[in-house]
Design brief:
The chain has about 550 residues and is of the alpha+beta class. It is globular, with a radius of gyration of 27 Å. It binds ligand MTE. The site of ligand MTE has 18 residues, from strand 6 and strand 12. Ligand MTE binds next to strand 6 and strand 12.
């Protein structure tokens, strides 16, 4: 079968072994003969310069919307502007996403560059021209130098494992960032947002008005924000899914962070507008960044139900951990929705609209969907997916790391986090060193404070008697006694969201309470030879010839007699 026209390709065995899945042809077995269908390829980039010119002057079409709002183009009220942008984007092609799920993930930081997203911004031009470069500058200014930049633009980054739970409240510079577009740079003095749609008295508010304590009581809340993509890498490594680059940044366990936000309850602001009218049931939030989807431009829009707002669980926040919101986290004002996925906590808020149905904008209606396992590229409809709001209970081990060799005295030092959405909290954290057969409970004193809207960090010396490869598993029970599915396979879904399965890592256990192991480790020390990696042969004979002979002189020979 001519599946691959190869002649001694050096990477053939990798392809055969599933290590270069993207190169595999699709097998069509619907006919009498199996046919090999070539994967999609992309031709050279094209650009219809005349058609683009005919759209008009990009600097005028996509000019600065408001004084003091750098990088903001308002799309939602201007169908003509959207149409012009669509024509420009349709008149040229852009490079595809690099394949990083069925192929290797680049060993670089930034991991993925987001080249086509940068090119889309440059293609629109006008106010968006400088946005990719300005955004990266903001990243370098505001984020910790050790951040893992999963996607350079739009910026998606998380702290490395060793820093995820180093503090119960995440320092701002280490809080993960999930952006769908650039970072608008907004002057505080020029800032206002509007509240309109189905409210009695639509109006706009400046920051000073919002901060006026005589009108709006201040709320101070410590909140864990979690992206529904947290721990996606476990799904990618076993069962790749939707290959779109921005929703599918290869997040590890750090797309979760906890901060103290100061702001006000949105409910009070709606009240100040005379309340909802005409059957309004949802609040739609508009972010000032530009999002691209299907050759179309738009702002970042999502909604939450009024019931959530009514319960005072939706804040408008301007302060994060005692500082003004960093630009990258939504300066000057963002939404913080307690207990929902991060996607609903809109940054760079410029408008709130009261509406009857949940937002039909793509981020709400086409993304952040939890599909059943039988649904994928071959058959999916958006309505097959549950719109993700509250995150289920989950947890993760931050130390040790998978494939790590651990030398210990019968206990493996572990640490990590546990979280549950919807206002539930981790009530019990359990660890297993035998793949999830026996579980040890982390003593409550090893868990950080119990709070309604936050994670709990934990640490535990996990008993481990056995040696060799062991699977350490972590799971959490929340206060409603929800717990985590056992394996990533049970969590897998086409959108690669909500990896809430038990977190599993494999480490190589070297237990020094065993006399033979202690003796061998002493030999390594004496010989001044590093023990790792375990795959390298022992640098000295593991047994003397005398000892070997002594054994056989005292035991039965290898083969049994008749
Ligand atoms: N708001 C706007 N305007 N644009 C965005 O891309 N991303 C959302 C949300 N708010 C986003 C946004 C997503 S998906 C998440 S997980 C959170 O912001 C992340 O918040 P953080 O970047 O402050 O950690």
């Amino acid at each position: 079968m001519p599946f691959l026209q190869t002649t001694n390709r050096p990477d053939e065995w990798k392809i055969e072994q599933g290590l270069s899945g993207a190169a595999l042809p699709v097998l069509d077995m619907t006919g009498p003969e199996t046919k090999a269908l070539a994967p999609q390829t992309f031709g050279p980039l094209t650009k219809d310069v005349k058609a683009i010119k005919a759209v008009g002057d990009r600097n005028t079409l996509f000019t600065r919307e408001r004084k003091g709002w750098t990088g903001f183009v308002e799309w939602e009220n201007y169908p003509d502007k959207k149409e012009a942008a669509h024509k420009i984007l349709k008149s040229q092609t852009f490079p595809p996403n690099p394949e990083f799920q069925l192929g290797p993930i680049p060993a670089s930081n930034p991991v993925l560059p987001g080249t086509h997203w940068k090119m889309w911004h440059h293609a629109i031009g006008g106010e968006l021209t400088q946005v990719p470069e300005d955004s990266w500058e903001t990243v370098l200014k505001e984020k910790h130098p050790d951040m893992l930049h999963l996607l350079q633009f739009p910026y998606n980054g998380e702290p490395p494992k060793r820093l995820v739970t180093s503090k119960v409240v995440t320092p701002n510079s280490l809080h993960f960032v999930r952006n769908h577009g650039g970072i608008p740079i907004i002057n505080k003095e020029d800032y206002s947002f509007s509240l309109d749609g189905l409210v009695a008295n639509p109006r706009s508010f400046t920051l000073d008005e919002i901060m006026d304590e005589s009108r709006f009581p201040r709320v101070d809340k410590t909140v864990t924000m979690q992206c529904s993509g947290t721990r996606r890498i476990e799904q990618i490594l076993s069962y790749p899914g939707q290959g779109d680059e921005v929703p599918q940044a290869p997040w590890a366990e750090g797309a979760i962070g906890t901060a103290r936000y100061v702001g006000i309850s949105l409910k009070k602001v709606i009240k100040a507008c005379g309340g909802l009218v005409d059957g309004a049931k949802h609040l739609e939030f508009y972010g000032a960044d530009t999002y691209f989807k299907d050759d179309k431009t738009m702002n970042y829009l999502v909604s939450v139900p009024w019931s959530k707002v009514k319960a005072n669980e939706v804040l408008l926040a301007w302060e994060m951990n005692g500082e003004p919101l960093p630009r990258i986290h939504g300066f000057p004002l963002r939404v913080v929705v307690l207990g929902y996925i991060g996607a609903r906590s809109v940054k760079w808020l410029y408008r709130i609209k009261a509406i009857m149905e949940p937002s039909r904008a793509p981020v709400q209606s086409q993304e952040y969907l939890y599909f059943p396992q039988q649904v994928g590229k071959h058959n999916l409809k958006f309505t097959d997916g549950i719109q993700i709001q509250e995150m289920p209970v989950s947890s993760a081990i931050m130390s040790p790391w998978t494939k790590q060799v651990v030398i210990h005295n019968g206990k493996i030092r572990c640490k990590g986090w546990a979280y549950s959405g919807g206002g539930r909290w981790p009530e019990r954290v359990e660890l297993s060193s035998d793949g999830g057969f026996n579980w040890y409970t982390v003593p409550v004193e090893n868990l950080s404070e119990k709070r309604r809207w936050t994670w709990r960090t934990w640490h535990f010396d996990l008993p481990c008697d056995v040696e060799g490869w062991v699977e350490i598993v972590c799971r959490c029970w929340d206060n409603s006694l929800n717990t985590q599915p056992p394996d990533v396979r049970t969590a897998w879904n086409w959108g690669l969201h909500v990896t809430s399965s038990c977190h599993r890592i494999t480490v190589y256990s070297v237990n020094k309470t065993r006399p033979a192991t202690k003796a061998r480790m002493d030999e390594f020390e004496k010989a001044r030879v590093p023990f790792g990696p375990i795959t390298v042969p022992i640098a000295f004979p593991p047994q003397t010839p005398e000892d070997y002979e002594k054994f056989w002189s005292q035991h039965d020979p290898r083969d049994a007699e008749e």
